[in-house]
Amino acid sequence: MNITNLSNNTYVGGGYFHVEGCPLRERCPVVEFSWLGDERGKLVVIEGGIAIPFEIKRIFYIYDSDRDVIRGQHANKTSEFVLINVAGQSKVHLTDGREEFTVELTRPMMGIYIPRMIWKDMYDFSEDSVLLVLASTHYDNSEYIRNYDEYIKMVDENSPVQ
Ligand code: TYD
Which of 11, 54, 65, 120 matches a 20 to 30 Å C-alpha distance to 28? Predict the structure, then answer.
């Protein structure tokens, strides 16, 4: 996966809501990072704008979440993210209100790219899960949509006329 593909997948048609002809899975690709390894162990390098299609403005990580906890449960108006389980495992469920799929993050060299305006849930955290999140923006609570009905309304209002 290279940055050109990611950009094309995300911004086809110049929109970031429902893009006709571009399935959700293609707009939210799983990214395989290359790793440098030798007898001392493995090293994964992620450079903003190179391995992922945005400059990294913020990182945060989620750990110590029980298996029955559901995190996320929001969409973002402006932020793009890449989620990586640098340790342990978790599941990420994504929807744009029409299509949906779940990806299992199981390895430190895999990530899931999440463009703007995608509703996300993270859950099924293993005990040792450390979920690293790379974000394209600084934190701004006002760009979070935390109510699913409100999200669906926004998606419908911004969808191209069928
Ligand atoms: P929340 O968005 O609910 O976390 P998650 O998406 O992982 O379920 O954030 C939990 C709290 O942390 C909330 O009060 C907002 C705050 N927060 C920040 O201050 N900065 C950040 O970058 C993030 C992600 C959250």
Answer: 65
